[in-house]
Amino acid sequence: MSTPGEMGTEAWPLWEVFVRANRGLSHVHVGSLHAPDPDMAVRNARDVYTRRNEGVSIWVVPADAITTSDPDAKGAFFESPAGKNYRHARYYVKSEGVKHL
Amino acid sequence: MSGTDFDTHGGDLDVHGQVSVDEVELAEELAGAGITGTGATASADAAEYALRLGDDALMLAQQLGMWIARAPELEEDVALGNIGLDLIGHARSLLHYAGTASGRSEDDLAYWRDEPEWRNAWLFEQPNGDFAHTIARQLVAASYLVELYAALAESTDPTLAAIAAKAVKEVDYHRDHATQWTLRLAGGTEESRRRMVVAIADTWPYIDELFVDDELVERLAADRVAVLPSTLRPGFDAVLDAVMAEAELEPPTGRTAFVASGGGRRGSHTEHLGPLLAEMQVLARQHPGASW
């Protein structure tokens, strides 16, 4: 599978960057960058994505290690929940007398 | 749902505490200048010392800025730009403090001094060269600055100590950045290794000047205001030797091992400082008092 954004002409491989903003939060995908190896990728991520004090932890993942869902199969993949409102908690009416909801 | 159920959320009963993702806290811009932004007044000697350190930082920052949009990759534009901005921060704090002794601002000192009044060591005014030359200069400069600021953080001058305590964490990263690149260029292709070897040989002559003691630092060091440069050499050598060994690089020897005479601390400079100053100062001098 081809990697999104990968042209095949870059000298350095592409890395996906995940930053954790605070203790107790998850790492969140913030973007991608080029770097020759994992050590440099972490340093580049620090320089590109945490310049304004955004993070306390960084993960980098080789972009070609990520398997993505097929953008052309959006219908088959993601449209099935439509009309199934009962899968949302707000579909249900709160019973009388239940507190702290 | 009744409103009272929600009221407990923001109150003392919130067991999760405050978790904030996007809270921006702007820290003070000038380290050591205190909350008022003015801070202490430097003695004449301390001002001259701060000028040396500030000029080192500012000239290196000015050089690194020239890499923006010209580095091998966009990521490296940002890395070198960030390092330059760290150094501008050090220069601002140091020049601000230096200026308190003579009633001059950081901008007065940056834009309105001519070549003989600059106190930076020669290393910091040497041109960028190719990427390997910039990395070699960064390796030497950052390794020296880490030793300097780590020691200066213990200064009896609270302003210098505060500036150094903030700067040491930043130059530590600069040293790591330069080390990583030294290892990769030296261990990369035949061409990258050749360039790294040349860059080390061209940078080496400017090391000794960094560690020369003179009367000013001896006076200041007696009161533990300044750090004697000569005392920083063993730590610097140990770090550089380790990087060079890992990169399988040799310090220049024999005919190629010459030492530049130096003199930057007295205002004597190489031919590279003039053009650097011209570019940095031209706008401020053409439009005195301009603000933006």
What does this structure look like?
The complex is a heterodimer of chains A (101) and B (292). Helices cover 17% and strands 21% of the residues of chain A. In chain A, a hairpin with a 6-residue loop joins strand 1 and strand 2. Chain A is flat and about 60 Å long. The mean pLDDT of chain A is 86. In chain B, helix 5 packs across helix 7. In chain B, 55% of the residues lie in helices and 0% in strands. Chain B has 292 residues and is mostly helical. Chains A and B meet through helix 1 of A and helix 3 and helix 6 of B.
Note the main attributes of this structure.
heterodimer, A: 101 residues, alpha+beta, three-stranded antiparallel β-sheet, 2 helices, B: 292 residues, mainly alpha, 0% strand, globular
Unreliable parts of chain B = 1-11
What's the count of strands of chain B? 0
* Number of separate helices of chain B: 10
Order of SSEs of chain A, N→C? EEHEH
Q: Which class best fits the helix and strand makeup of chain B? A: mainly alpha
